[in-house]
Amino acid sequence: MCEADSRKRHSELPGTEGRVLYLHTGFPKTGTTALQKFFASNKLALGDLGVWYLQAGRLRQDESWGKFRWLKKMFAKAARRHLADQHHPLFGPITKGSRIRPWSWDRSLELLRKEVESSSFSQFLCSTELLNQGIDFSELPRLYDIFDHIKAVVYVRRQDGFMASLYEQAVKSHGLSQPFDYSRRLALAPDYHNALSQWSSFVEGRGEVIVCPYEKQQFHGGDIYSDFFYRVFHVELDVSQCKAPSSNPNPRLVRDALEFKRLLNICCGRQEASRFLGALFDYSAKRAPETAMPFTMRSLLSPEQKLGACIHFEASNAKVARQYLGREDGRLFYEKLPESDAPCELYHGLTGETAGDIIDFLKKEQPSLIDPLCDSLQSPPGNTPSEDVKYLCMIRDIIGR
Question: What is the Cα 255 distance to its own chain's centre?
Answer without folding.
Answer: 19
